Amino acid sequence: MDGVPDRPVRVFDALPRALRPLSDPPTGPGWNHAQMADLLGDVPRRPAAVLIGLREGVQPRLVFTVRTAHLQAHAGQVAFPGGRKDPEDADAVDTALRESEEEIGLSRAQVKPLGFLDCFETISGYSVTPVVGCIAEQAVLYPTPAEVAEVFEVPFAFFLEPSNLKRYVMDYRGHRRAMVEFVHGGHRIWGATAAMLLNLLERMGHA
């Protein structure tokens, strides 16, 4: 079924070894800085953060959003909940949790931050800090219509199946870029979201 192995995944056992600890947040530049420098130069990147949230359960599931069609940037694309850092945010964890509450109604009390992935630079000029955390199994999630068209979840086991990772090359602004994507249940997960997922899989030794 959608390439998901029929077995429990002990992802929460493997995650701590793969993540940067909460006491050691990444400071940049992003792991893809050289590639972005060719496109954007060395202008300062604006700070942002996303929540890579794993819902607890026998089969842990990653939480994604589909951005609404009217947004100026990345309309209709699959994304992790998150956004740019506000001046009032204490740190990247604060940004990720605030944005998740605003976008999908996820209470901070139902998230346990676990650690960080490496920073990732986007074509829109942001340096994104991915915050990995576990979401309580009973958490109720709902989209905020102004920003999010849909909230959906994918079993983490799906991403551990090598055949579900698609690699390709695209031309962008005269540069050839190596890309990755996943397709599950009619949702295409690509771009920055897929790249951050690949970073997580690589750090876990599954890519």
From TrEMBL:
The keyword Cell division does not apply. Residues 44-185 form the Nudix hydrolase domain. CDD domains: NUDIX_CoAse_Nudt7. It comes from the Bacteria. The keyword Ligase does not apply. Keywords: Hydrolase, Magnesium, Manganese, Metal-binding. Its cofactor is Mg(2+); Mn(2+). GO terms for molecular function: coenzyme A diphosphatase activity; metal ion binding. InterPro entries: CoAse, NUDIX_hydrolase-like_dom_sf, NUDIX_hydrolase_dom. This is 8-oxo-dGTP pyrophosphatase MutT, NUDIX family. It comes from Frateuria terrea.
